[in-house]
Design a protein that fits this description.
Layout lengths: L7 H12 L2 H13 L13 H4 L5 H7 L15 H11 L11 H7 L1 E2 L18 E6 L4 E6 L5 E6 L9 E2 L5 E5 L4 E6 L4 E7 L3 E7 L5 E8 L2 E6 L4 E6 L1 E2 L2 E2 L2 E7 L4 E6 L4 E6 L5 E5 L4 E6 L5 E6 L4 E6 L5 E6 L10 E5 L2 E7 L5 E6 L5 E6 L7 E2 L6 E5 L9 E5 L5 E5 L7 E6 L5 E6 L4 E7 L5 E7 L2 E6 H5 L8
Helix pairs in contact: 2-5, 4-5
The protein binds heme D (DHE).
Heme D binds next to β9 and β35.
Keywords: Heme, Iron, Metal-binding, Signal
Pfam family, one: Cytochrom_D1
Organism: Paracoccus thiocyanatus
Length: 484
């Protein structure tokens, strides 16, 4: 008897492989939520600009996402069709997506059930609330900063990134997702106020010192969207230099200057937009700079160059270059923090490409020390009331470690690693600096609370892939040890 050279199961699979038609599958299964043009509807935009850093798209299509409307399609689509669909949504769109002022205005959705209140609906200190962004299932948990009880847990737009921004009284918070939605949440009533889509792909947001203007930095379209405190769009600023559009890498609030400062991705300029009348000031620089860190008085800005080998200090008052800092290995200035050391102010920045923290004297911009760590880190935190700086090791085999560094000796005094092999990163202090919260950055993750003095663990709160944590007081007072 002649044996068949292919198995029956493979023969059955062949027509399925031949039939994979991702465009048709998209139209049938995905368009209803994510829109025919893939720019998003009730579900997020499915374009490389917003999905770029999302891992495991196949698994999401197959199994869905817990606690979201995204259902799994494993029963209806073959593995080949799912793989084809995953690469289809990662294919750039043929026509440049469009998102103009009228589309922004039309996207505004206010919560009809929202009722403001005269005082918080809880007994906890409203200025010691800490928000935890849970990227695992796109939620934020609202923690009482004294007891660490979860007061509320609410759904956010898809893929929240960057620090949420609090109104100056700490009552409201604005949260941004990578696909351009800005959500407003009332901490006193524990309720969403509304949301609006400021762009198709956004980077971060900033708030004016009076809380009346929200600025949204966008990659797509290349622009800065200005909203009022009630999420009404006020202006869409086209960030074009010499006729060529430039993406906005990030926008920063400069409270003393009453301005927003913009890092432009594609042009050798820094822009400053007055928060009162939105007048634009353009500061020419030698090369595009990114990932800004500011002196506490906001007169000087340090940006990283594209090659990731130096920091450039610019005087924002006169636009002059003050210094160049040798910072090889991709400094992550945006995570920089400052503190007083021996009567002088120093700043520290992690490096994304090297296991080192650079400590710089902010008076003469000299390098004080490079602290060797167990691998490249992403985030740093300190607090005026604490003698320590907390530095994670985000990348590499030691991603499970958190270094605690003495602010004076600049030596690592302790390395915490309670979850071997799992990412342990991003720290935040409570209002009084007595406790530190660290993320077990995994899907079945946790926030671990430490006594900031003894460095002993005091509590574990289960969370879904917690990323950043943000204490109201530390943010609205621009506490030294927090990145802004
Ligand atoms: Fe971030 C803050 C840019 C990748 C998590 N990140 C920021 C800010 C900027 C920035 C400009 C400051 C915004 C603010 O708070 O107003 N991030 C970038 C990048 O350019 C980069 C390297 C590439 C990218 O894809 O955009 C990048 N960031 C990441 C991640 O991969 C992280 C680890 C996971 C994620 O959620 O995407 C990540 N970024 C964060 C977090 C903050 C942040 C948690 C807020 C830190 C804080 O404590 O304030």
């Amino acid at each position: 008897m002649i044996r068949p050279i292919v198995s029956i199961s493979l023969l059955l699979a062949l027509p399925l492989m031949a039939q994979a038609d991702p465009a048709a599958d998209y139209a049938e299964h995905c368009a209803v939520c994510h829109a025919e043009d893939r720019l998003g509807g009730t579900g997020p935009a499915l374009i490389p600009e917003t999905l770029g850093r999302l891992r495991g798209i196949d698994a999401v299509i197959a199994q869905g996402r817990v606690s979201t409307q995204m259902e799994g399609f494993a029963g209806r689509l073959s593995p080949q069709a799912i793989t084809a669909l995953a690469s289809y949504v990662m294919t750039p769109l043929e026509n440049r997506p469009h998102w103009d002022a009228s589309q922004i205005a039309a996207s505004r959705e206010m919560n009809a059930d929202y009722q403001p209140a005269d005082r918080p609906v809880f007994a906890a200190d409203p200025l010691n609330i800490t928000l935890v962004v849970e990227t695992g299932d796109h939620h934020v948990s609202v923690l009482d900063g004294d007891t660490f009880a979860v007061l509320d847990r609410f759904a956010t737009p898809f893929a929240v990134h960057g620090g949420p921004k609090f109104s100056p009284d700490g009552r409201f918070v604005y949260i941004m997702s990578r696909d351009g939605w800005v959500q407003k949440y009332d901490i006193w009533t524990l309720a969403e106020v509304g949301r609006i889509r400021a762009a198709l792909n956004s980077r971060n947001i900033a708030i004016s010192p009076d809380g009346q203007r929200i600025a949204v930095a966008n990659y797509l379209p290349e622009s800065l969207t200005i909203l009022d405190a009630d999420l009404n769009p006020l202006r869409l600023i086209d960030t074009r230099v010499g006729g060529i559009p430039s993406r906005v890498s990030a926008v920063y609030q400069a409270p003393q200057r009453e301005s927003f400062v913009l890092a432009l991705k594609d042009a050798p300029e820094i822009w400053e937009v007055a928060t009162a009348d939105l007048a634009i000031r353009r500061i020419p620089i030698d090369e595009p700079l990114d990932d800004f860190f500011f002196s506490p008085d906001y007169r000087q800005v340090i940006g990283a160059n594209r090659d990731g080998d130096k920091g450039v200090v610019i005087d924002l008052d006169n636009g002059h270059k003050l210094a160049e800092l040798p910072l090889p290995g991709m400094p992550h200035l945006g995570s920089g923090i400052t503190w007083e050391r021996g009567g002088r102010r120093v700043m520290a920045t992690p490096h994304l490409g090297e296991g080192v923290l650079s400590v710089i004297d902010m008076q003469d911009w000299g390098l004080v020390k490079q602290i060797r760590t167990d691998g490249p880190g992403f985030f740093l935190r300190g607090h005026a009331a604490s003698p320590y700086v907390w530095a994670d090791v985000f990348f590499g085999p030691h991603k499970d470690k958190m270094h605690v560094i003495d602010k004076n000796t600049l030596e690592i005094v302790k390395t915490l690693a309670p979850f071997p092999g799992q990412t342990f990163a991003h720290s935040e202090f409570t209002r009084d600096g007595s406790h530190v919260l660290v993320s077990l950055w995994e899907d079945e993750g946790a926030v671990v609370v430490y006594d900031a003095r003894t460095l002993n663990e005091v509590k574990r709160l289960p969370m879904r892939k917690p990323s950043g944590k943000y204490n109201v007081w530390n943010k609205i007072t621009f506490e030294d040890g927090t990145s802004h």
